[in-house]
Design brief:
It comes from Artemisia annua. The chain has 324 residues and is an alpha/beta fold. The protein contains 15 helices and nine strands. The structure holds adenosine-3'-5'-diphosphate (A3P).
């Protein structure tokens, strides 16, 4: 396998030379690979996932477009599935960042410069991914596959602001920062890591309509408005519905509180800790917590910019039954 891994590097070098490329928000370039814009690291991971990742029937994947609520959902899914193992007063999420609660498949698949085996993970295994539905292997996505997906989407206007801020924070200091106008134009054209945003959302939306038992489609805004309702839904979908006794003991409220923006962002580990996502690079946990509110785009977008994004959204989603 190590040899296959080394060969892959050669194939990739060729691929990067032939794929259409554009300016990346984090790295210098992103490449158009099968209709989505991906960084080098992520294309490499995707090829490894397609060839080597062996899903287990009980696996649950958290899929998101970047900056749509991954950190929040990671914490919630981890807290739901491990609630019988830990006390809330001494919970691992209080001392480890939510990003390390379970692996980010896209790059963790080769985090140690070899193909990662995930056999040691407790079942059900939880994984996060930003890959679009259509890019993942059918062993994961086919309606016949028993694996489940939780997808969270968010208003693209808030995603744009959050992503622009985040990417500039983690962008190499050797590169010129991305200006807001540049980010806005690229986002509208679909050109940003894992973009186009709308195609990403639609892929999961359509799949969730076809197989509602396999894909739970959530919205960040609904979760902010009614976290208890959405967390109950999430637990039931994961096959871990809260019992009457748990409801009476206030377990749902405890989980919502533990995973709230206020609790997580004020923890020492999320103020000063770091997380490794690719072999040579770590990201400060604090970068995953900015404001955690709905509608912050109002502080950045002009009326004209807002109208343009809204009209792209309504054109793209027309007839799908989804509104954002
Ligand atoms: P903002 O930049 O709008 O504040 P992701 O986790 O997918 O990278 O998304 C990050 C966004 O989710 C950021 O949005 C971040 O502040 C927000 N976020 C992080 N943790 C959260 C939580 N526990 N509850 C609500 N929002 C959260």
């Amino acid at each position: 396998e190590q040899e296959a891994y080394n060969d892959l590097q050669k194939q990739l070098d060729h691929l990067y030379k032939t794929l259409p490329k554009d300016k990346g928000w984090k790295s210098e370039y992103i490449f158009l690979y099968k209709n989505f814009w991906l960084s080098r690291d992520v294309i490499k991971g995707l090829l490894l996932i397609q060839t080597y990742f062996k899903p287990e029937p009980t696996d649950i994947f958290l899929a998101t477009f970047m900056k749509s609520g991954t950190t929040w959902l990671k914490a919630l899914m981890f807290a739901i599935s491990n609630r019988h193992h830990y006390e809330f007063s001494n919970h691992p999420l209080l001392s480890t960042g939510p990003q390390s609660a379970f692996p980010f498949l896209d790059t963790h698949i080769y985090l140690d410069q070899a193909i990662t085996k995930f056999d040691h993970l407790p079942k059900p295994r939880l994984f996060a991914t930003h890959h679009p539905h259509e890019s993942l292997p059918t062993s994961m996505t086919s309606p016949m596959s028993p694996c489940k997906f939780v997808y969270v989407c968010r208003d693209p206007k808030d995603v744009l602001i959050s992503k622009w801020d985040f990417m500039n924070k983690i962008r190499s200091k050797d590169l010129v920062p991305i200006s807001f106008n540049e980010a806005y134009e690229s986002f509208c054209k679909g050109v940003s890591e894992y973009g186009p945003f709308w195609d990403h959302v639609l892929g999961y939306w359509k799949a969730s309509k076809e197989s509602p038992d396999k894909i739970l489609f959530l919205k960040y805004e609904d979760m902010k408005k009614e976290p208890i309702v959405e967390v109950r839904k999430l637990a039931a979908f994961m096959g871990m519905a809260f019992t009457t006794e748990e409801e009476e003991k206030g377990v749902v409220e405890e989980i919502v509180k533990l995973c709230s923006f206020e609790t997580l962002s004020s923890l020492e580990v999320n103020k000063s800790g770091r997380q490794r996502f690719i072999a040579k690079e770590t990201i400060e946990n604090q970068n995953f917590f900015r404001k955690g509110v709905v509608g912050d785009w109002e502080n950045y977008l002009t009326e004209e910019m807002k109208d343009r994004i809204d009209s792209i959204t309504s054109d793209k989603l027309k007839g799908s039954g989804l509104t954002l």
